[in-house]
Amino acid sequence: MSWVLVPLMSLCYRMKGGLWSDKVWGNYLNHVGTLGLGYGTAWVAGYGEHWTALVCMLAFWLGEKVGVGGYMGSLVGADVDDHEWWQKGVLKENDYLAAVVRGVIWMLPVLPLAWFYPDYMVVVGMPLALLVGAVIARFVPWDSGLKHWEGIEWLTGAVYGAWLWYTLI
Question: I need a surface site. Which of 25, 47, 79, 150 has the fewest CB within 10 A?
Fold first, then answer.
């Protein structure tokens, strides 16, 4: 039954990215998606019913607030000059490295929870998902009905869910 993590994390990641554009509900659902990613991580680590699940959800939310925009667009072929505030030097030039660093930044608030989550493989998931999702999205010929940005979010969430599922096996 743990295979459900793949579509569920894909949906959560897309919700985080703005699946619904409604100004009121869309903003709330953005947070629900981020908290869902955090809960999925806590659940896989075996703490879904433990108080650290709430801490993991909040840590995920905090890590996501750093910004994830400019490099993702250029990874899927868009001409993007807008970089995130943390993209300096080589991170401005190498979008793949920026994806990995962004995943590490995202997981930094979650890292102290490694004291409770002995399976470090869970913490490796987001840097891996941001990189692999971006690489896959770059080479998928999207039709006009699905934008690259939306596709990269669906794929990144699915890769993260697959990684979490893999850690359970």
Answer: 79
pLDDT grade for 117, boundaries at 50, 70 and 90: low
| CA distances, 145 to each of 71, 137, 140, 151 (Å) | 22, 15, 13, 10
Q: What is the DSSP annotation of 115-137?
A: GT---THHHHHHHHHHHHHHHHH
Dihedral pair phi/psi, residue 20, rounded to 5°: -110, 130
Tell me the per-residue pLDDT of 34-43, one tens digit each, with 9 for 90 and over: 899 889 888 8
The whole-angstrom separation of Cα 114 and Cα 55 is: 12
> What are the two backbone dihedrals, phi and then psi, of residue 88, each rounded to the nearest 5 degrees?
-125, 155
Only one residue has tokens 């990215």, namely 17
Q: What is the residue range of 14's domain? A: 2-168
Q: Is 78 helix (H, G, I), strand (E, B) or coil?
A: coil
CA distance to 69, 71, 140, 152, per residue, from 75 (Å): 10, 6, 12, 9
- Here the tokens at position 153 are 């979010």
Q: How many CB atoms lie within 10 A of CB 123?
A: 19
Specify the amino acid at residue 135.
V
Domain count, the chain: 1
The residue among 148 and 125 whose pLDDT is bigger is: 125
**pLDDT tens-digit map of 93-106:** 887 888 888 888 88
